[in-house]
Sequence to fold (358 residues):
Amino acid sequence: MLGITRGIRFAAVLASSLLLGTIAACGSSSETATPAASAPAAPPAGTTAPAAFPVTIEHKFGSTTIPAAPKRVFTVGLTDQDAAIALGVVPVGTTNWFGGFPGAVGPWATPLLNGAPVPTLLEDPGTGPQVEKIAALKPDLIVALYSGLTKEQYETLSKFAPVVAQPAAYNDYGIPWQEQTVTIGKALGKESEATALVAEVETKFKTMAAEHPEFAGKKAVVATPYEGFFVYGSQDTRSRNMVSLGFTLPEDLDSVIGDTFGASISKERSDLLDQDLIIWTVPDTTKDVETLHKDAVYKDMKVTKEGREVFIGESTNYGVAFSFVTVLSLPYVLDRLVPQLAQAIDGDPATKVEPAAD
Fold:
């Protein structure tokens, strides 16, 4: 795993066993997997609309005007590269998160590089973006939508390129994938293409929800065994995906989580886990499952006894894609996740939740 701060890790997958603070890179698997056949296709090159510029985009720190079609894009946001690649623009540089993929381009996105070199991969050493190294790449646009960029970092980066920071309407790392895609499309002069890609993936959500009416109205929660039980709130992208499939979230979830994308809960509020279905992201699908099933609180819950659980290994391509939540990773995830949800939701402990293809 890459070196990142506690805050950035919380905003992302929260691989549960890692130590806090700056963490040395570890060798996650970087082998590729066949992308889902339904992944959105890249639009043809050269579709930027000249009339789209200059364009002004509002964000947490004010607004940014992009004078002309960007040619050298750097993504500070940990998943922002996917939307750019989906729109036919390969960034000159990206920010390392997790997964061990060259250029931080996952297997669901690599076919869309179309022979372009993978982006230069930079680390966040725990103090924010590496400004000098970003500047050396001479970007003409810096995208920081799925990020926790501070005002000071924004102002520093803005000295040498326009910066599109995270929107004010959501928590840091809380931008919905739809808005992320359309905002990046707007910044690239490809808003109509971005809107079409979003509609395509939303249709896949609707189709799968219609095919599984048993999901409708069932309460679900996404968690990870970090510092006890870490539960994701309604503003987390993974939780939103469950709602898009027809599930509901616990009514008092956000009152317990607070104004953030997720938080560790006390043993007294472990009842939040006992829903109709729970998705766990875990570092080890053998060791961590055994530990959870031995936990004095969790083992006796109805959700546990009835096998209404889906476990996703964080170090797998599937696990990384599950936490990426982008216009490119979502079709890859849905083809794997939905069958598992259907197996888990029936409440029959004898129904085995089959491992998903990586």
About this structure: The chain has a mean pLDDT of 87. The two ends are 19 Å apart (CA to CA).
